[in-house]
Design brief:
The structure holds two protein chains of two kinds. Chain A is of the alpha+beta class. Helices cover about 25% and strands about 15% of the residues of chain A. Chain A has a three-stranded mixed sheet with strand order 10-3-11. Chain A has a two-stranded antiparallel sheet with strand order 1-2. In chain A, β4 (about 95-105) and β5 (about 110-115) form a beta hairpin. The longest helix of chain A has 15 residues, at about 5-15. Chain A is globular and about 45 Å long. Chain B is mainly α. Chain B has helices spanning about 1-25, 40-65, 70-80, 95-105.
Chain lengths: ~250, ~130
């Protein structure tokens, strides 16, 4: 496919979809995007609590394809996106996002959903961290500051979503924007390096049919509008963590 | 008189040997310069680069400020050294920009346990240069 073709297709997609997300792909020159500069916060400006980033996942459209997982691996350099972690057992290796199949035992009705850090408003991993390495950015993204993580793994035990992993061996194959290293805990960063550049996380880019990324604080954002119209489920809402990741179609 | 002369000769020889010893020791490192002007004057960079990187580290981590000035990624990007085969050298190689001085000063670097020590052409998100 040449450049003209893809441009036409992208325009067509933008018109058909009529969504801001689709227009993001409209390139005016290689690497220069029309809406990116408009959405992106200036590089030297700190993030603010005006935003709260969130994800909405429609499990009705999820078709067990695993694209979100491979996109994350490729983007952040873990699993199949890396040649490291050869000595670790399967259950020891990094797992930032995984697919989970939930089945209703009575009816046999089953759903597959991607599970990752839920970017809670009240994150238990932050509560228990003895050094302050596990923290929540003011815009709601929960991260590990690996500079001060001592690898105690208390956060891994505290997380009800089993979203974090520990790096057991020396790594050499890191991405420059996603540093990871032995002796530290890691998890989904909501692709913070992309979000800071006004882009969507890699998983959302790979699966725009069932994932929406956006600002939960902005009532006009696509994600807020969709939640307002059709609602969404918090996983383990009983824990009152108010996760930033919401699901649709989990009606068992 | 004779003893005095001998002492003089010995001290001269010792002096000479000491001078030769310095010359024959570990050579002063000559790290490669990046293209164009560095973000700070060279003498300030030599003494304070760790402070700049540390400050930028916390701003990027906590506040999402991703300017290229004082970012480790930008250091690596400008000062990357290639070997004879045209491949970027890693920190296990004495020719790596950071290693040239750190090896001389016997100061270990922890940065590259997590951070990439070479620029990667496969990185999909190159650092955006601040206009």
């Amino acid at each position: 496919m040449n450049n003209n073709d893809s441009l036409v297709n992208q325009k067509r997609r933008a018109i058909l979809g009529g969504t801001a997300a689709a227009i993001t792909g409209l390139a005016i020159a290689p690497g220069v995007f029309l809406t990116e500069t408009a959405q992106a916060r200036p590089l030297d400006e700190a993030v603010s609590s005006k935003q709260r980033w969130g994800l909405l996942i429609n499990t009705n459209n999820c078709n067990d394809c695993n694209d979100c997982v491979t996109a994350c691996q490729d983007e952040n350099g873990w699993g199949s996106g890396s040649t490291d972690e050869q000595k670790s057992r399967e259950d020891q290796k990094a797992q930032w996002i995984r697919t989970v199949k939930v089945t209703d035992n009575q009816t046999g009705y089953a759903k597959t959903l991607p599970m990752m850090c839920q970017h809670c408003e009240n994150p238990p991993c932050v509560d228990v961290c003895p050094t302050g390495a596990s923290f929540k950015r003011v815009d709601g993204i929960v991260l590990v500051d690996k500079h001060i993580c001592i690898g105690c793994r208390y956060c891994m035990m505290a997380c009800p979503y089993k979203a974090r992993s520990f790096v057991h061996e020396k790594l050499t194959d890191q991405r420059s924007y996603a540093p990871r290293g032995m002796g530290t805990v890691e998890s989904c960063t909501l692709c913070v390096h992309r979000v800071d550049n006004g882009e969507d996380p890699a998983c959302v880019e790979a699966c725009s049919s069932s994932m929406i990324f956006g600002d939960l604080n902005d009532p006009d954002s696509e994600i807020s509008q969709e939640l307002n119209r059709h609602g969404g489920t918090q996983i383990r809402a009983d824990l009152r963590l108010n996760p930033g990741v919401r699901y649709q179609g989990l009606n068992f | 008189m004779h003893a005095m002369h001998l002492l003089k000769t010995i001290s001269m020889v010792v002096l000479l040997l000491t001078a030769m010893g310095v010359n024959a020791g570990v050579p002063i490192p000559k790290p490669i310069h990046g293209e164009g002007q560095c973000v700070e004057p060279e003498d300030i960079m030599k003494r304070n680069h760790m402070e700049f990187i540390l400050h930028q580290r916390d701003e990027t981590m906590q506040e999402g400020i991703r300017t290229s000035k004082h970012s480790l990624k930008q250091c690596i990007s400008c000062h990357a050294v290639k070997d004879d085969d045209g491949e970027y050298v890693h920190v296990d190689d004495s020719r790596h920009f950071c290693v040239t001085c750190h090896e001389y000063a016997a100061v270990s670097i922890d940065c590259f346990q997590c951070h990439a020590d070479t620029p990667r052409s496969t990185d999909k998100h190159e650092l955006r240069v601040n206009e």
